[in-house]
Amino acid sequence: MSAGALPILQVVLPLIAAPLCVLLRRSGLAWAFTTLITWCLLAISILLLIRVMAGGVISYRLGGWAPPFGIEYRLDAVNCFVLLIICVIAAVVAPYMRQSVAREIPAPRHNIFYAVYLLALTGLLGITATGDAFNIYVFMEISSLASYVLIALGPSRQARTAAFQYLIVGTIGATFLLIGIGLLYTMTGTLNLADLSLRIREVSDMRPIYAALAFITIGVLVKLALFPVHIWLPNAYTQAPSAISAFLAASATKVGAYLLLRFIFTLFGVEFSFEQMPLMEILMPLSLIAILVGSIVAIFQNNLKRLFAYSSIGQIGYLALGISFGSTSGLTGAIVHTFNHAMMKGGIFLALGCLVFRAGSVDLSTLHGLGRRMPFTMAALIMGGLGLIGVPLTSGFVSKWYLVQAAIEADLWPVAVLILFGSLLALIYVGRIIEVAFFRPPPADLQAMREAPLQMLIPTWILIASSVYFGIHTDITVSVSERAAEVLLGTPS
Amino acid sequence: MEILTHFNYWAAIALAAIGLYAVIARQNMVKKLIGLSLFQTAVFLLFITTGKVAGGTAPILSPDYTLYSNPLPHVLILTAIVVSVSTLAVGLALTITIKRDYGTIEEDDIQAADAKGHGEEAGKT
After folding, report:
1. Domain ranges of chain B
2. How is domain B2-124 classified at the CATH fold level?
């Protein structure tokens, strides 16, 4: 089997499956179909990654039109890795959704829910696979519109206001990206990313290109939810249905990180972004503030979903910090952390979904002594939390190791200290959960509480276990990340 | 008169600023959405006007003309308009559900209602 149509199948399969899903009126059927599709997508993404790691770049021409005039899907080590992350998360979350969704969303809407889930997936995969700047904008809006709907399906009425808030902020962000792409097009006359990266060199001292970098960076940062444009994230993650919180936390912001990498490194180039433009001076303080503010605010939250949403803001800070170094070890750290954080946060939000399923709430006050009633769920939560702290033998340790190494290489000792200080803050908020769940006596009426169903526990543990596995066996993730960092920093092909 | 040579940019920037201002300053959700649409439309205008070639005609192949405007921005913006309409539709749909749940579409009132709801929840536990 040749690489052939695999790149386009990766994106078109869920797009075609979504309307079919609406036609399958029965909830169970729609769920089974969605799960099947996500597993196919996972298989495709694994095949693609194997091919790219062996043979370099795969280029697919949409409709047979040759680039730079036609739309090109261009897969290298960077986006293949991100495709794999998204597909793993989607494939693990899909089986989990059956019971979680049945509990949280009214039955007549189930088929529509699964259809919109597939559309969100299409958008995220499309952004990652495409090599065309305008295509990125369109797919970004597909995934965003689908996410607004998914968040609005959350159980409480605040879900609707959270979705509206996200819609306003997200649309402004996407439109900023569109302005940036427009400026690039007027200066170079092309939209193909590879072609753009060559032509941009000829006009890189012109002011519209400066403006384009600024607009694109801000637009992408909104999607990434870096401080100070993170405002939509806590509400959205708190109010969304549990499975969707896990899916979005683990995949949507990762795609934002990918876009930032793609635009800064492949398109504008390191020299332009970091020497002509003060990107490092802007990104680094913002990410440090994100790490500190996100973690500190997380300490004071009582709603666990909100707590981990703020912790996500802190973790996104680490991602952006790795990018802001502009060095190989910094980028390796950022890309490894993209993968590791997807596994940890995905697992944590799935565990929180189990709590919602059994306890009906994720408020810290309802968790008293729950460690004894739901040992597997709470253990998953704590393992994920240890990963966020960066305890050795968890994958969080690996990413922090590379980030600290990058900070030391760049002679920025205070930054290295702040990275470690961020871990201490994580220790506090994870410690609070451990204290309440394991060391407080359970209230008398807790006898009835049972462990979450296996269909929800197994996906949770797959993500948590993989975050531990990749903390011990670092060679796979680190070698792919190093390769990706080299692709980004090397001469653009 | 240098300003006038690029008046299309000035118009787009002015419209975008008005739209953004409405999004930020208005409390009413429908007004926010109007501002958002205006902001997006301003960017479309910026895009489309860059496709104009001085003296060029509509890009229809004809032996009488040799100079055409660039049609690509028009095509791109056609797609972007579809995106913008869908965004507006989702936004308005959300506004309707919010009106049903809260009885208002003013952000102040919604925040007040949420704060009150939290207080009651805290009181129960």
Report:
1. 2-124
2. Helix Hairpins (1.10.287)
Reported ipTM exceeds the 0.95 cut: no
The pLDDT value given to residue B3: 67
- Taking CB atoms and an 8 Å cutoff, what residues of chain B touch A236? none
CA-based nearest residue to A329, from A251, A253, A415, A389: A415
Choosing among A161, A184, A192, A216, which should be mutated to test the B contact, i.e. which has the most B CBs within 10 A? A161
Q: Are B68 and B57 a contacting pair, CB within 8 Å?
A: yes
pLDDT of A1: 40
Q: What residues of chain A score a pLDDT lower than 50?
A: 1, 491-493
pLDDT at A229: 87
Contacts of B36 in chain A (CB under 8 A): 168, 171-172
Cα distance between residue A343 and residue A349, in whole Å: 10
Which of B46, B87, B102 is the closest to A157 by Cβ? B102
Inter-chain residue contact A164 with B95, CB threshold 8 Å: yes
Q: For chains A and B, what is the number of CB pairs under 8 angstroms?
A: 70
Residue A248: its H or E element: none
Q: If residue B96 lies in a helix (H) or strand (E), which one and from where to where?
A: helix B72-102
- pLDDT tens-digit series, residues B96-120: 999 999 988 888 888 888 888 765 5
Q: What is the CA radius of gyration of chain B?
A: 22
Amino acid present at B65: Y
As a dihedral over the C-alpha atoms of residue A164, residue A165, residue A171, residue A176, rounded to 10 degrees, the angle is 170
| Domain boundaries, given as residue ranges, for chain A | 278-493
